Amino acid sequence: MPPVPVDVPLTRPSLSQCATPPNDFLGVCTAWQLRPVAGRDIANDRSNIRYDADVIGRLRDIDRATRPTMTRLTNASDRYESYQCRFIP
After folding, report:
1. Is residue 62 pLDDT above 90, yes or no?
2. Has residue 14 been placed in a domain?
3. Which has the closest alpha carbon to 12: 77, 61, 83?
């Protein structure tokens, strides 16, 4: 299947606004997998409910921050439509 054409002039401004959130997103992903204990990162075994709730809160913050950009991208190209519902509904 050929790639879906993207209207670059319409998507470039939206994509440039996402420069920082992906770094935050990677940090949240790492925090979900590892948590600090006594100065070391250990595998997150989900035993610390408060820690996990904080990580989920950070993920929701990123979702709220990126929704306007994702809406603009979806309006510019149908290619991005599925991304909005895949993050946090």
Report:
1. no
2. no
3. 77
